[in-house]
């Protein structure tokens, strides 16, 4: 009997996890043994099932994928984590690999590429989406171009300042008299603009740029 590659799926959207599960179940050598809907759950569940591969979304509530990857790798240096992201960005891929991920794949990839990436990681190899590889090559060819500083709106700066001040989403929403969903959207847009992927990085950016709620 062929040994199956055990996989844990981590994504905050149920429909995405169900789609990935349906896709991977078609491969006779892959078995999905666990699922998690945020990074915090992923860290806890990994301890219980110790899967061969973790397919990790990056943008999730409570704890994002990069932070969760770092926690898992700190406890299990040999863990094999495949980042699955909507973001075609060299910096994002770099942060994932720095945290300990072994692969980076875009969510719009074909199902076959996901299966190939899982098998590559299981065989001890790393995997980088061809789209990201092409992006890096293009950027290297344009390395003399000046990178423009991201322009934040007044509202984005307000939210960023409150985040740096230690306020959580509900507190910020109350302070600005808007919904928590609005704050989450503004936070995600701001993270995308400045190229960071965690609250800690947002806070560091605000401090570095002198953005303060005081």
Overall description:
The mean pLDDT is 88. The protein is globular and about 60 Å long. A 6-stranded parallel β-sheet has the order 2-1-3-4-5-6, with helices on both faces. It folds into 2 domains: 5-141, Rossmann fold; 154-209, Orthogonal Bundle (Arc Repressor Mutant, subunit A), CATH 1.10.10.10. It has helices at 14-24, 39-49, 65-75, 90-99, 111-122, 130-141, 154-164, 169-176, 180-194, 199-209, and strands spanning 5-10, 30-36, 53-57, 80-85, 103-106, 127-128. The chain has 214 residues and is α/β, with parallel strands linked by helices.
SSE pattern:
EHEHEHEHEHEHHHHH
Low-confidence stretches: none
Category by helix and strand content: alpha/beta
Q: Indicate the proportion of strand residues.
A: 5-15%
Counted beta strands: 6
Q: Looking across the biggest beta sheet, what order are the strands in?
A: 2-1-3-4-5-6
Q: Under the CATH scheme, which architecture of the largest domain would be assigned?
A: 3-Layer(aba) Sandwich
CATH top level assignment of the largest domain? Alpha Beta
Largest sheet: 6 strands, parallel
* Gyration radius from CA atoms, angstroms: 18 Å
By oligomeric state, this entry counts as single chain
User: Distance between the terminal alpha carbons, to the nearest Å?
Assistant: 64 Å
The residue fraction in helices comes out at 40-55%
Give the total of domains. 2
CATH topology group of the largest domain: Rossmann fold
Cα shape: globular
Number of helices: 10
Query: What is the name of the CATH superfamily of the largest domain?
Result: Response regulator
Estimate the mean pLDDT confidence. 88
């Amino acid at each position: 009997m062929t040994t199956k590659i055990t996989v844990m799926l981590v994504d905050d959207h149920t429909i995405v996890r169900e789609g990935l599960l349906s896709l991977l179940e078609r491969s006779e050598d892959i078995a999905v043994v666990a699922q998690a809907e945020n990074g915090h759950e992923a860290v806890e569940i990994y301890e219980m099932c110790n899967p061969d591969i973790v397919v990790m979304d990056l943008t999730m509530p409570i704890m994002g994928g990069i932070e969760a990857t770092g926690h898992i790798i700190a406890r299990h240096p040999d863990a094999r984590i495949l980042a699955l992201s909507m973001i075609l960005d060299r910096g994002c891929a770099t942060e994932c690999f720095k945290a300990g991920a072994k692969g980076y794949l875009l969510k719009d990839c074909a199902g076959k590429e996901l299966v190939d990436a899982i098998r590559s990681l299981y065989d001890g190899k790393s995997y980088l989406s061809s789209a990201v590889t092409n992006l890096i090559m293009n950027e290297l060819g344009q390395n003399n171009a000046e990178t423009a500083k991201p322009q934040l709106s007044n509202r984005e700066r307000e939210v960023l300042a409150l985040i740096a001040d230690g306020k959580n989403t509900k507190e910020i929403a109350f302070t600005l008299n808007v919904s928590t969903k609005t704050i989450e959207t503004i936070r995600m847009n701001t993270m995308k603009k400045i190229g960071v992927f965690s609250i800690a990085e947002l806070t560091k950016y605000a401090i570095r740029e002198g953005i303060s709620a005081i």
